[in-house]
Automatic annotation (TrEMBL):
GO terms under biological process: glucose metabolic process; pentose-phosphate shunt, oxidative branch
Species lineage: Eukaryota, Metazoa, Chordata, Craniata, Vertebrata
Enzyme class: oxidoreductase
Protein name stated in the entry: Glucose-6-phosphate 1-dehydrogenase
GO cellular component, one term: cytosol
Species of the source: Gambusia affinis (Western mosquitofish)
Pfam families attached to this UniProt entry: G6PD_C (PF02781), G6PD_N (PF00479)
Amino acid sequence: MFAALSLITLWCSKNATVSKNTDPVTRKCPQTPGKGAQPHLKMTLPLSRSEVFGELRQELYDDEKFHQSDAHIFIIMGASGDLAKKKIYPTLWWLFRDGLLPEETHFVGFARSDLTVDAIRTACMPFMQVTEMEAERLSAFFARNSYISGKYAEDASFSKLNAHMLALPGGPQANRLFYLALPPTVYHDVTKNIKQHCMSTKGWNRVIVEKPFGHDLQSSEELSTHLSSLFSEDQIYRIDHYLGKEMVQNLMVLRFGNRIFGPIWNRDSVACVVLTFKEPFGTQGRGGYFDDFGIIRDVMQNHLLQMLCLVAMEKPASTSSDDVRDEKVKVLKCIPPVSMSDVVLGQYVGNPEGEGDAKLGYLDDPTVPKGSTQATFATAVLYVHNERWDGVPFILRCGKALNERKAEVRLQFTDVPGDIFDNKCQRNELVVRVQPNEAIYAKMMSKKPGVYFSPEETELDLTYKSRYKAGCT
């Protein structure tokens, strides 16, 4: 899922700064005068959920650059798609529910399908995590929603969309944010029509471009040139929604907020790094889209490569987006082209003895072209040729219709030198489980109770749903 806070940043100016007079994470603990008091000691307590939201609302409403207009319209291009119903609409609902959107915000869906808002609501409900207490608030959210059907390459459809937005409360002055939850094949037509027919003349305009960004290097460069001809750079947001996941963001804090990991986070102590993305379901009617891209473009070259960069990069000068990006780019420049001898590809087939969808192979999906050789599974070994990681394999694995749902980063450390336990010790591992059941745990050896030195593998486990009752997104 999206992290709700990540989507907030898309609403805010790239140059917006957090007030230096407030700390959005902690509050000072008041000192009680008396014996043994230490007035100079700064104690902090975590902010409660409501206090965090209060800080965010204050930043939101105090940002003059953001409030070029008090009315805002969020347009979901591709509102009938999988990404919209599973990710975008649920996240917008959570932001609306918690009061983290401007009061005068409206949501407009646009796609080719002949849909209604009620149909969108029905499709999204399994992913929105709505409690009985929130039913009234949910109705208020969908009352702010509307839907327009049209063709992506048709001028008249976008003129109709623009007329609809102008008719909304505050529409002529509203800021407009366009989210392209679409296949890249229609980016050119959609962005051209947005520029020609749907730009706000009094508010700001922004376009969010979802991965995959092009089909290859040439198409990616062509798309960049096309977007730059239509919009200024500060109007364009190129995103990979996976970076909004709590545990992906936590890689930064885990690495650079803990002294214990610094000395061992390198080729001297790490034997290999395994990045895994597994889904237990197949294409399920999305074969037409998936077959154009395959598992490598769909998952590996974006989600997994982004996590690889977070694991491998040097400490950035700050947590600003530009500083983090610069360090990621340095990592990518150190990765040579992958050899085919370091790649394994596969395509799932049906299990005749399975149940339901398990009986169906990739080619059994009616939306998949007959005889397709597109990969639904891939493993690739990458190397980062720099001083920190030279010689350490980074193993990227991803696939559909596998045995479980799992996404994780696993660092396996080298063997303990000078073994005195008769080869009974296994390698230590540090695992960051992104989904499901977010967790960080370390596999280590411990003495099994008894009179003998019997090593046994055990875990130091931080499971988020146990430690943080509010959970993750």
